[in-house]
Structures are given as structure tokens and as C-alpha cells.
From TrEMBL:
Superkingdom of origin: Bacteria
Protein name: Cytosolic protein
Organism: Bradyrhizobium hipponense
Length: 98
């Protein structure tokens, strides 16, 4: 499982996904289906997301199965930016339609 912060045109999203990589074409297809075609992403250490979201993380995680694509952990940009510092995140990954 991965936790990813996506900076999209409509605002930040923090997601949990069962996909191994943000480069996984199935994951990118799911995001495109949701209207997310261009974004900057950062991997959020799973242990850090668990610590910051506590019970909410556990509730979202319990609904994520191996066959599921993703779950949204948070869509409140202000809260996401308050909970995580940039130096806690992985290197930025830039995605845009080809």
C-alpha cells in the first residue's frame, strides 16, 4: 500500500492505493477516469500518514482491499498542508497527459 499526496488543478488530495507505484498504468487510468490528468505527487511515508490521521487512517485503510484502486484519505488542502512538511515527503513526481 502507498500513501500519496497529489497536487491537482482542483486542489490537494491525500490518497491510499493498493498499487505499487504511481507509474502503474492502471492507477493512472483510475485517476484519469476521475478527471485527474495532470498533477504533482509526493509519496507520504505510510507510517507518517498513520500517525497523523490515527483512527481515520485505520477506517480508510480497512476499506482498501488488494483489488481496490484507491481511497481518498483527505481532500482538505489546508489540513494536509498543516499536517505534513515538505521535507517529510518523497521527491516530486510530475505527471501530465502525453
Amino acid at each position: 500500500m502507498k500513501s500519496l499526496l497529489l497536487l491537482t488543478a482542483s486542489g490537494p488530495l491525500l490518497i491510499l492505493t493498493s498499487h505499487e507505484s504511481l507509474h502503474d498504468q492502471k492507477l493512472l487510468e483510475v485517476l484519469r477516469h476521475k478527471g485527474i490528468r495532470k498533477f504533482v505527487a509526493f509519496e507520504v511515508p505510510l507510517s507518517l500518514a498513520k500517525a497523523r490521521y490515527g483512527g481515520h487512517f485505520q477506517a480508510v485503510e480497512s476499506n482498501l482491499q488488494e483489488t481496490d484502486d484507491l481511497r481518498i484519505l483527505d481532500f482538505d488542502g489546508q489540513r494536509i498542508f498543516q499536517l505534513f512538511r515538505f521535507d517529510e515527503l518523497g521527491a516530486p513526481i510530475l505527471k501530465e497527459p502525453s
